[in-house]
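debug: dumping io for the single-chain case to check the tokenizer round-trip. Nothing else runs in this session.
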Amino acid sequence: MRRSRVKQRRVRPAVLERRLHQLFILSVIVKGLHALVELIGGITLYMFSTNVIAAWLWEAGQSNDWIERFADSFSTREHHFYAFYLVSHGIVNGAIVGGLLLEKRWSYYATFVVLTLFIAYQLYRYSYTHDIGLIAISIIDLIVMALAWNEYRLFKHRLHH
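debug: decoded output
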């Protein structure tokens, strides 16, 4: 009886580690898809003038007060900020995702540093915009960081054995 309990204790951590690894891979893929959407969105913003985008926002804002307020305040400066932010954020996240999927050591360190900075900036922006999307992205970033930490721990263990 005692022997079967010991065996169960060994199996459970292995199953848990496998599930956490699967969740890590899924979260990194979601992060990669998000990076791709950001990159496409940023490039798209660069392709159109501020006036064209403002006109689209006004059109969309006729059924949504939030979009209408955003369209009213949309400026060339904001246009350039969003385009740059989306492209740079997409490139950085894409590089991290690629590194994590290829199990590159630098990508674990980059994940912790870059996502911490992104979260800090997203929360700072949230304090001004109250955009719940920033909170959602920050939560996803925290989950990716926690799972990356577990993966990094396993990565170091594999290197030493």
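debug: round-trip ok. Residues 14 and 20 are 10 Å apart (CA to CA).
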